[in-house]
Amino acid sequence: MVQKFTFGKPFDTEAVVQEIKASKGSLPFGIARKKDGGLCWTCPLFDGDKIFGLGETMRGIDKRGYAFDSFNTDQPNQTETTQSLYGSHNFIIVFGKKTFGLFVDYPGRVKFDLGFSNSSELCVQTARADADLYFFVPQKKSGSLKEIARAFRELTGKSYVPPKWAFGFCQSRWGYKSAADIEKVWKTYRKLGIPLDSICMDIDYMKDYKDFTVDAKKFPDFKNFSARLKKDGVRLVPIIDAGVKKQKGHKIYEEMLAKNFDCKNKSGTTFEAGVWPGDSVFADFLNPDARAWFGAQYKALLDLGIEGFWNDMNEPALFYTKENLKTVFARLEKFKTRPLDVTGLFEFTGTANSVLNNADDYKRFFHKVSAKRAGAFAATKPDKDKNVLVCHKDVHNLYGYNMTRGAAEFFETQEGALPLLYSRSSYIGAHRYGGVWTGDNHSYWGDILLSLQQVVSLNLAGFLYTGSDIGGFNGNTSRDLLLRWTAFALFTPLFRNHSAFGTREQEYYQFENPDAFKSMVELRYALVPYLYSEFLKAAKGDGLFARALAFDFEGDERARSVHDQMLVGNEIMVAPVYVQNAIGRHVYLPEPMTMVEWKGGKVAAQKKLSKGDHFVEVPLESVVFFVRNKKKVPLAAAAPCVDKIDWTRLSFVGDKSAAYELVDCE
Ligand code: MIG
Questions:
Q1: Cα 394 to Cα 127, 130, 384, distances in angstroms
Q2: Which atom from ligand 1 is nearest to the alpha carbon of 424?
């Protein structure tokens, strides 16, 4: 099924867990040659071919026709033409005349031209000519999509499983500044009876944005505070940023430098860049000792009762480097004497903007790895311990992955349940250590659809624990948008309402008739046994929790091209409304299904619908979902938090005569 081909001397990304001997001879699909200093693999595309995959990228479920650039990027403007986001997941499935999967295991920039330059050609280009290509050749005539997806996971390892409470609702916002702010969120949710399991703490909880610190002025007696919340079933989930503040006396800053665990400039001095804490330094997560050391720092927060974390800014985002600032200031200087005509004006603003997340800054720093691992990427001769430096730019996409891995590997050494962990940046392999959220989206109607498309593509890349910022991160949300978004997101494992500093407050209680939101969150809690059970089945069996209809209805031409519906576990299909003021939507049913309407906190209607096309009305305060043919879905009674859900008293929707296998961890 899997064939590996090695070109040059690749860097060992540690994405793969299965030892496979490299094949010699010709590739099963397409041809590879050297081009522009890198490897260029091309293959013909035929009419009707589809391309699934690429994990966290923009655009549809079928990605054919556009071009993407795998290069992890802090991207606050996600638009349809955006080619790079926070993660790089270089796995695609070409489905059609010839069906196969391809994983391009390469740690730096990879360009995917999926019929963009030439509609009948697929082209993948790596920055350097050292890469491993894995081809997945299905053995069966039907079910090839699922077969390839499973083989990919067998190659890259089991998906992360979060604690059960992480299937509850999380309220978040960049802007909660103190214990009082958080207490208000907690108390208001409880007062209104809207279920809640966690509250995220964004960067403001830290003392001067210093990782693993809690500002004692804003959070006096934090340990007691977190214990009080937990007693009521609410966990606090702090953010951890990649950049560590440069400050004398800041323990982890000093320790990092003393142990030589910092990323270095070529000359061997410490690499510095500006992020939230101001001048900052960056741990060399590619060095296993540095990674383990950083992971061990999470203990400071575990000791305060924390059981969940989100890793941010780990592409890594760099707001500025002093070196680049110098260049930019010098360039700006000449504008002082130059008339700012239209061209000049835009050059001027463009130059100023090039301070932020400038990709050239990634050329400035280095990681220390074993010469063996580095392959052709070594930028120096081996030292006495057989280590070499590699330039960050060449291995850029592995940084966030290894930050998260460091934490996860540390958690495994600790007693008790594994904490919740998800990350903004990732690469294939990171799915073994944590989940991901899809970053800084907008309060756009189209971002509900984007979220669905990202979730199914991320599942294919192994990331089962995913979700988007409900209501939208950037921009001001509206009540109707938030309702529609929630009605979809309650089916995604990570169920979190999050928004940016300065935007309209979007906790559910900020809007008229919070009961409408309450009803939806209650449905989520009713579904937790089902969602968790289906999640476990997918994680343990290397399957897909959320997926496009094509994966279960490969032979159905209509189903194959549905881009705005998804299957959730083995029993449910969802079809969200993502258009403003729509009274419902067209839904394609690839088989007869039971339509379930949830309203006012209970099942309001169930109706059998035939296979085919339907216009389904979906009132704004209702959730409509579909139970598949000859299947049923368990619903629990509403509970304020996941720990209080009674898994033994379940009712069912769908075909009551069907069987349902409920799976629980241990
Ligand atoms: O530069 O911590 O994606 O969720 O609220 C912005 C502040 C940094 C980006 C994250 C977002 C978070 C925000 N962070």
A1: 8, 11, 23
A2: 3
